[in-house]
Structure formats: C-alpha cells, structure tokens
Design a protein that fits this description.
This protein is an all-alpha fold. It has helices at residues 10-38, 47-55, 60-77. It contains three helices and no strands. The two termini are 19 Å apart. 0% of the residues are buried.
C-alpha cells in the first residue's frame, strides 16, 4: 500500500510552503535558495520526468525515510550510502 503525505487545505499548503522556504534560506542562504526555486522554471528539460526517473514509484514517506537514512549515514561516515 502506498502512503502519501500532502496538504489537504489551502492553509496547510501555505504553511508548508513558508516552512520549506524558511528551511531553504536557512540552509542555502537567500541567493542560493532563490536560484534553487527558479531552477526548474528556466525551461530546460522536463522536471517532472527527471524527478520520476530519480525517485521512481516511491511514496513521500519512503523518500523521507531514505533521506533521513542518508543524512544519518553521512554524519556517521562522511559519505552517503548508495541509492537503492
């Protein structure tokens, strides 16, 4: 069974966008966060296709779990594990 997490109401979506933006700015700085956000809008390639090829049929929960695992592994060894 595939589990997906997504905002169901407009206020949830706005809150999620604001939190996501705040995290991007905190981690990357305002300039790099802005570059990251506009990157898919530059008209090069097919972002949806690229994301689907990278993540396949994984659910949001599976992607999140994999990201946490990589982050933990990287902090322990300094190198992320191979992508499954």
């Amino acid at each position: 069974m595939r589990s997906e997490t997504h905002p169901t109401e407009t206020t949830d979506a706005i809150t999620l966008l604001r939190k996501g933006w705040a995290l991007l700015v905190k981690q990357l700085g305002i300039k790099k966060a802005t570059e990251f956000v506009i990157l898919p809008e530059r008209g090069h390639g097919d972002t949806v296709k690229d994301i689907n090829q990278y993540w396949g049929n994984m659910s949001i929960d599976e992607i999140h779990s994999q990201m946490l695992s990589r982050k933990h592994h990287q902090s322990q060894k300094g190198v992320p594990p191979p992508r499954t």
